[in-house]
Structures are given as C-alpha cells and as structure tokens.
Amino acid sequence: MTYADIILPLPLEGYFTYSVPDTMAARLQAGCRVRVPLGKSKTYTGIVAFLHDHAPEGLKVGKDGVKSIAGMMDDAPILLPDQLRLWQWIADYYLAPIGDVYKAALPSGLKAEEDYRPKTEQYVTLADDYRSPQALRAAMAMLRRAWSQQKVLSCYLQMAGADESQPQPQREITREELMNESHCTATVLRQLVGRKILRQYEKEIGRIPLGGAPHPEHVKELNAAQEEAYRQILDLQKQKDITLLHGVTSSGKTEIYIHLIDRVLREGRQALFLLPEIALTVQMMQRLRNVFGDRLGIYHSRYSDAERVEVWKRQLSDHPYDVILGARSAVFLPFRRLGLVIVDEEHEQSFKQMDPSPRYHARSVAIVLAKMSGAKVLLGTATPSSESYWNAMKGKYGYVRLDKRYQDMALPAVEVVDVKDLRRRKMMTGNYSPRLLAAIRGAIAGGKQVILFQNRRGYAPSVECHECGWTPRCPHCDVSLTYHKVTGLLTCHYCGYVSRVPACCPNCESKDIRGRGFGTEKVEDELQALVPEAKIARMDLDTTRTKNAYERIINEFAQGKTNVLVGTQMVTKGLDFDNVAVVGILNADAMLNVPDFRAYEQAFAMLSQVSGRAGRKGGQRGTVILQTRQPDSEVIRQVVHHDYRSFYEALFEERRAFRYPPFSHLTYIYLKHRQEKTVETASMEMGSRLRQLFGDRLLGPDKPAVARVKTLYIRKLVLKLELGIDLRRVRQCLREVQSEMLRSKMYGALQIYYDVDPL
User: Fold this and answer.
1) Which of 44, 98, 707, 754 would bridge 703 by S-S if both were Cys, CB 3.0 to 4.6 A apart?
2) How much is the pLDDT for 284?
3) Which of 66, 81, 110 marks a domain boundary?
4) CB neighbour burial string for 9-40, b if at least 16 within 10 angstroms, e if fewer
5) Which residues span the domain enclosing 191?
6) pLDDT on residue 684
7) How far is the C-alpha of 465 from the C-alpha of 138, rounded, in Å?
8) Does a structural domain hold residue 211?
9) Of 80, 110, 140, which marks where a domain is finished?
10) Are residues 90 and 220 in the same domain?
11) Which CATH number characterizes residue 688's domain?
12) For the chain, which ranges sit under pLDDT 50?
C-alpha cells in the first residue's frame, strides 16, 4: 500500500497522511494536487509532499482509520521539488504552519479545481471539405445568389492568405476579426457555418498581452564606473553566492542589472528580479521589456488570480518566461533553470510579509531559493540594510561600491528647515514653510516637477474636540480613526471600521471638532489652494487600489501631464523621473520618533531614498527641502551630508551594545485573545516557561504599541538569541512550549504566533 503525506490549505502544523488508491499509485507524484476528505463532510484540494509505504502507527486503512485520496487533479506536478523544499524551509524557519505557506504561495485558482478557467476565443477556419481548388470554386458558385455570405467568404480568404488556387489558410482568424472586417452579422456567419463551408472552433489564449520580440541590441553600453562595477560583480560571483551592490541613487544600477540578466540568458538560464513595491514594476517593466520583449513575465498581487495562474502554468511549460519581474510573492514561482536573483532596494521593509502568516522576508527566501537552484544573488540599493551591510563588511557577501551618479550628476543639495521655529514666528502657511513654497513655485514656473513626501495617508491621522480633547477611536482596535476628506468618513487602517464625523462632541457637545495632524490628502488639498497652477497627482494606498492605477499615475507624471506628485513611501523608492527638480519632505520627525530599534535605520533610508528622486537628469542639481522640528538630529545631519559611513558606524555601535541585529537573532512572540485577562495570564505563564529555557534572552511580556486589533487583545514577548546558537533546537523548544500551553482548556481560543527577524 502506498501512502501520501498531504499539505492542506489550513493553518495546521504538519502533513496529513492518506492512502493512495491502486488506480492512482503509478501516476501520482510529489507536487500534484489531489482532492481529499477531511472530517465528516469537507473536501479540500491538497498537495502531495511525500509518497511512502509506511502506514501511520495504530491506524488501519478504511472507515475509521486512514482515509483514501478521493481524486487526482493533475497529470504532472504543479510544484517542483525545490519549491516543496522551499515551502518546508519557510515553515520551519518562520515558525509557521505549512498550510499557511500553501495559502500564501499558490494562486487561488490552483487551490480549487473549478476556480480557474482558461480564457478562450472563437476562431473561424475553412472546412476541410473545401480546401481543394475545385471544392472552393464550387462553394463560391453555390453562394452566387447569397451575396452577403459570398462577401464574408471572400473576406475570410483574403485575411487568411488563401484564394481559389491556394485554399489552404496561412493564418488563424478570430470570429470577431472576420465580423469586423467584413461588416457582417452573426446570422450571416452562422449560415456559412451551417452550410459547413466555414468551421468555428475555440482556442485558449493568454490573458497577459505579449511583450513583442526581444531586442538584445537595445542593451545600452555602460559608462566607465558602471563597467568597473559590472566587472567586479562578475569576479565576486566566482567566489561568493551573494553580492551587495551599494550604488548611490541614480548611479545606473538598473543598466548593470540588465547586462547581468542578458549574460545569464545567453547561458540558457533564468533570472528573477524582485522589487519591493508594485508601483516600481511599471517603470522597470518598460525598461526590461524594451530589451527582453516577451521573454519577460510579470507577477504580483495586482494581477488577477487567473493571470497569476497563467504565469505559474507557463513557468511549468516547455516555454517558460526567462525573466520574471515581481514583488515578494514572485519567489514562490516555479523555476527550472534559475541562474540569477536580483533583489533591488533590498533594504526595503516591504519585502517583509507582516500579516497574515507566514511572516517571511522575501530577501531571505530569495537567497535560500537561489542556493537550492545553484543561482547567484545580487542585492542592490543606495541604503543597504544593516544586516546586508554588516555581512558585506565581514566578507560573507561580496561588496561593490558605485558612488558616482549617472552622467556625473551631483547629489541633491539638502536644505533643513526648522518648522518649530517657523511656527513660533507664525511664518508657516499650513504645513508649508516659505522656503518650500518658493521652491515649488519656482520649479513649476521653470517647467520642472516636484515630489512631496508625507508618510501618512488620509486627510488627518485623527480628529479631536477642540474644547475637551475627545478623539474618536476604533471600537475594535486601540487606535484613533483617520479622517478621509474625499469620503467624509473616519476609517480604521487596521480593521477597516468606518464611521461618520460626529456633528458635535459626544463628551461635551461642542461642535468645534478639528483634524489633528496631516496626511497626503491634506497635503494635496492645501497645495492646490496655495499654488493653483500646480497639476497635482497623489499616490498612496487610497489612490492605487485599482489594477492600473499605478501605471496611470506614474505615466502621467513621467509625461508631464502632472507636475507635482504627493505620496507616501511609495514615492521614495526606485522611481526614475527626468524632470524632478525639487523634493519636499514635510514631516521628517514622524519617522524619527517611532518606538522601534529600527526607526533611525528606516528613517535614514527613506529620507535618503526620497532625496535621491531629485536632479537625476538634465544637468541641473536637485534641491531637497527637509522640514523638521529636530534640525540638530544626528540622523538629519547624516542625510544632509549623504554620510553613509558615519551613520552605519554609529548604528553598529548601538546595536552591539544592546544586542540587536545584526549581532543577534530576534524573534517576537505574540499572544492574542478576546479576553484581556486571559491573554495577560497566558503571556505571564508562557514568559515563565520560556525563561526557564532561555534565561535573560527573553524580555517581556509587554503590551505592544497597538495592544488590541480586531477585538483581540495582544501581548508580546521578545527573544534575543546570540549568533551561532542552534536555531533548530530553539524552534523545537518554542513549539513544545506552545503545545503545552494550548493543551489547557483555559487557553483553548488563544492564538500564538511568531515574527522571526522582525522589522
């Protein structure tokens, strides 16, 4: 008897064992989808992880024991062996159920047999009986009095590249094409089909438009600095699996990527190109498609499920995409010949999946995928993450520095504006300093463009009563509600709860309710009133919900249809615009005053990145206006002077002193429950059990900054582990303690989950 260990799309640990019917045993392979029963009446689409002949102990095959697979859904595996190994690594390393990895990795259309249907189109062709000259002449004679039908047949022959002497069609014609060209009705076409002169058939077509023929001749020549960096990367790849390309903003890293991809493709291998934001794929797609044409595939969450299934199936076919460009989910795609993985903007926190489980980091997963595939990894950024920079400095990674901008353009001049002093002197106009307003007006008058960065969406982060200070809060989460002027609603950005702005304060009945703080919506609104000639576009989560919203906003800005782009962190990374002269950072303090050990690192990266959007081309040095209440902050000074080295030196000194990454492994342990008393008791008990195992490596329990989300109360434990510790044993201990906790009836509804390598 053959048995199969099955992965089910459920948040459950481990595999489920089923018996394999004899009729399937010869055909079933690891990586195939199967239908399996679970419980009394439910059926799930599972994936075969392993096949073996070991029956589960103490269970018989049959009604009360091991259940049998109900049916096969695939003749060939939809998961390759390396993918299964990668899934298992993610589940083990990130302490996530393998079922959660399944749900995250596989497009929904592959989780159920009936969800995905190939897109088809109706085609028309000449019936087989009329493919000889004599028969075709007879058909034309027969239609002499049916003038409309004869016209359609003649039109078809012309479009198909056939005639009475050579009636064999040279190309396929769609039903729609023929009707449009011949101006015929469906009835006329139906009559020709009824006479069996023409035949209709369905053909599967792709939902994704083709990118045209590849043009390797479009690969641009590298300048001297780029050529030297490219040569160094190739030399280092002979010795190292991973290389860090540390290139200043606008140094031409993308051209180096294109040269490396071209080289890999000429060797007959594939490339994976990861970007942190979907917005970035718009510009990058255009640049890559100009060279690689239809060898390039795109994969991210803004594609429909059916489109993602098509990309997945093509990767398993005999003619897969040679280059995949995508956001973090692209690491789950199947690759048979992977030779290069590029992680652009590798420092970006968007590569980390926060919720739901598995809370993986795409950069780490990409490195493991590359190792399994025998591929090389290139990490590219202007502001390396502390972990990557440390690994490079210690020789674990190769390191290449590119410190000249393309065409020797100067780095932008960063001007610091003290808004605290300006507000005291009543010189601020809303949230704009006189210097920033003057720079915006000057840029627009000179035909240049402006980017304004505010890392908060909505109109106001909260509203409050001016009399008593009352602030509306979410009834399900411990956060204030954000005001969105466009909808006129208060919204919770954690659970989605919405309510109207009250006409009067429920606490003191005052009608003086005002917005507090400002988001991108308010920035846009204020600027339109102050600079009426500005053509403003806004790019944040609210304006980019539709599939093509990113492309529309970016293209309109690139074409000069808009001259001011207001946005959140989406505008800080990787976007390349020729005509941007001014970048305004409206509230740098919001990033500096976050209670998190990575706050300064993320603030430095974000401020440096958004500054780098200015003065990229055109011979004119860009200007950055940085508004802050802390002009003397060391981080602000380092951003102004583009002083990467001193920033990292100070950062590493602090991290080493307090045992934070890259000098330790960090794991956050979260507990959730509907009852605050229960979660408090559980966190104390789990903390006590873990402290017996890990001693002072464990901190907490404590309340996180947001201690209730979606009606669940939250507590947090922090585990700091020294480098070199046996992580496999650590994970085993954590799972054992978790199992012991959840055996108690008191903690039956308790949720325990982990965030490994948190951001």
Assistant:
1) 707
2) 86
3) 110
4) bbeeeebbbbbbeeebeeebebbbbbebebee
5) 120-204
6) 96
7) 88
8) no
9) 110
10) no
11) 3.30.70.600
12) 113-114
